[in-house]
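Message: Just now I want nothing more than another pair of eyes on a protein record. I am handing you a single protein, as its sequence and its fold in token form. As I understand it, each token names a local backbone shape. Take your time, and here it is.
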Amino acid sequence: MDSFSFRNIDTSVTQVRAQRNWTSPSLASNIDDYIGKSLFTTRHKTLDDKYAKRRVDKKRIKPGYTRHNIGKAEKETICRNLCDTSICDFLYRMRKRSNYDNPIMYLSGTNDVERACSHYKDLLRITEALIEGIDTLIEFYLGKKEFGKIKSELKPFEMPEKEDIPF
């Protein structure tokens, strides 16, 4: 688990490890560090779940025991066989968390307009990165020519004027 790296975000393992888990995205000094921490904790949670399942695998437990300990080599194999963790994995984890863990934390916002705007701008950046990745994947499957044709027919998103926002 200690040998991980990041692609396509401007951060390092050292910066991610220094990022505190409870730091709000609106207070993060570098959103890439925050995204890196989110990806790291998502991967860590996924690995913990896989380790837990492996420990209670009935085929591996000796008679009279309720679980099986996992050695370092076996953990490394599980980690190596796990596919890359992406923003999609993080968003799925947050969706599950909002459904089952603590939905009230997503309902309580901030009274400070600037902090709220900053938070949602960061959320917009994460969404744009996700869309960019999905665009790349679609282009890979369709081909550049077909994807370019479809993309040229789409109307670009325009942010609504402040007075058009209902709140």
Remarks:
- The mean pLDDT is 77.
- The helical segments are 13-18, 31-55, 72-81, 87-100, 104-107, 113-142, 144-153.
- The chain has two domains: 1-105, 109-158.
- The CA atoms of residues 55 and 68 lie 5 Å apart.
